[in-house]
Each structure stands twice: as structure tokens, then as C-alpha cells.
Amino acid sequence: MSKLKIAIQGVPGSFHHQVALRNFGEDIEILDFDTFPSVAKSVANEEADFGIMAIENSIAGAIFPNYDLIDRFELSIRDEYYLPIAHQFMALPGQTIDDIKEVRSHPMALLQCKVFFAQHPHIQLKEDTDTASVARDIAAGNLKGVAAIASSIAAGIYGMEIIAPDIQTIKNNFTRFIILQKEASKPTTSVNKASTKVTIQDQKGGLAKLLTLIADNGIDLSKIQSIPVIEKPWEYAFFIDLVFEDPAVFAKTIDEIRASFGEVKIFGEYLSRK
Ligand SMILES: O=C(O)C(=O)C[C@]1(C(=O)O)C=C[C@@H](O)C=C1
């Protein structure tokens, strides 16, 4: 049987790569891409069976463009994964922090280590495609004076030395990843979470009414994110994650939202992993 093809952003040692291995096991084929749009495209055109996408980090917040990608490429969410994230400050062996003039990493990783770099203002921050590819490129190019922020797994793979461990602002740091597929996910009775998009017209108290409707059905709103409707400047859609005990109550709530507000898109119904 051919192996499952899993699309990720990043190279071996990246956090996406770690989620792929933990979620699907070692016996998979990884399709690695430089950008999130390429990951979305590969799932949409069925080159990949599944895609993995970081959506939110506990320090740095939401990755806004990824909400739009799921929507635009009509992808479906089949599962979620919370990965603890520890960032290591690493460089070619034998250097100290005073030798480092520049650090490169994924923008989300740089954001998670802002406090550390405020304490070391002589180091210039540069955004790059992913954490592990920077470690790989520093090692391959024998680049002195340049550091990476990446995982200890990446340090091991690419022979980098950790100069400062665990430099993320808060030690207890998590990124939530979603597992994407092309087909609409088939909800089972064991699902207790759904990701939705509700578009409400600009009306007085519209959002308040929506939130009350959700609360009155005993459903827990675990996340709400407003995203601009780009065709209509200053109008917003709401990406809403709902956690429920009974799928039938969730279905009834969606019917009620549709009756009062119009369009509701369901990206997926799955099991909460938190
Ligand atoms: O650069 C990586 O290693 C990634 O997997 C990307 C990514 C992200 O997109 O947020 C994943 C987890 C961390 O939050 C930092 C970076």
C-alpha cells in the first residue's frame, strides 16, 4: 500500500514535521513546502492526502492568513493537534552569544521570543521560511555570527550547538495545528468540536445576538476571530470554534444561526484535543 502523503510547511526538524510524525506515525511521505498557500494548494489539488497547518500560538496569537486559506481553498478540518513549543537559540559550535550578530527564523518563532531579543539588542532579527531550514542553511554554509531559533530536534539533525535553551517568553508555550483534507469530514457521534464561519450583516447588536444564541444552547465558544471580508471593506466574517456535548444540539444551533443570520460555513466537526 502506498504511504500517506502529508503536506507541511518546513523541512525535517520543523515543528510542522514533528506534528506530522506524532499525528500520522513514521510511515508517511512528507511533501514539504516553503509557504502555507502551497500546503493548502497541494491538499486542494489532491497531491497530498492531508495537510498540516499551524493556526494559533499561545504567545504570538493567531496566524490570520491561514483562516483565509482554509476558506478560499475550500478545505476541511479533520482534527487538531496541540504541540508544546520550546525554542532553542543555536549556532555553529564554539560560538558565544556575543559572537552572534543576526538571528533568522520563522516570523511566529521570532514573535514567541521577543522578550529574549529585547535583552540582546545587538542581535538583528530576520524572518525566514521555517525554523529548521535556517539551522540547516547555517550548517551547510558554515555561517559564523548567524543564529537560528529552532527545536532541539533540529539542532541534533543539523549539528548545531544550543547557546541559550528555552528562549520563548513563557515556558508553557503551545501551538495549535489543524489537520486538513479536501473532502468534507464525516462527523461521527464522538465529535465534540466544530470550526465555523458566520457572516453577519452590520446590524445593531448582531454579534451580541449571535453569542446569546450560542450560550442559550449550552454551547461553549472556544475561539472567535474576526476576519475582514476583502470584497466588502470594513465588513467582517467571524471564525468561531464551538465545543459541545451533543452533536444534535450543535446541529440545532447551526439551524438557528442560519435562520437568524444567513450563511454559516462548517469547516469541520472533530474531537477537541485540548
Ligand atoms: O518553522 C517551523 O518550524 C514551523 O513549523 C512553523 C511554526 C508556525 O507556523 O507557527 C510552527 C510552530 C511554532 O509556532 C513556530 C513556527
Could you please describe the fold and organization of this structure?
The strands form three sheets. Strands 1, 2, 3, 4, 5 and 11 form a six-stranded mixed β-sheet that branches. The protein has three domains: 4-84 and 174-181, Periplasmic binding protein-like II (D-Maltodextrin-Binding Protein, domain 2), CATH 3.40.190; 88-164, Periplasmic binding protein-like II (D-Maltodextrin-Binding Protein, domain 2, 3-Layer(aba) Sandwich); 193-270, ACT domain (Alpha-Beta Plaits, 2-Layer Sandwich), CATH 3.30.70. It is globular, with a radius of gyration of 21 Å. Helix content is 30%, strand content 33%. With 274 residues, the chain is α/β, with parallel strands linked by helices. Strand 13 (220-228) and strand 14 (236-243) form a beta hairpin. The structure holds prephenic acid. Prephenic acid binds at residues 10, 14-16, 54, 57, 85, 106, 108-109, 130-132, 175.
Ligands: prephenic acid
**Helices and strands: which structural class?**
alpha/beta
Distance, first to last CA: 33 Å
Proportion of strand residues: 25-35%
> In total, how many domains does the architecture comprise?
3
Q: Indicate the low-confidence ranges by residue numbers.
A: none
The CATH superfamily name of the largest domain is Periplasmic binding protein-like II
Find the CATH topology of the largest domain.
D-Maltodextrin-Binding Protein, domain 2
Write down the Rg: 21 Å
Largest sheet: 6 strands, mixed
- The count of helical stretches stands at 9
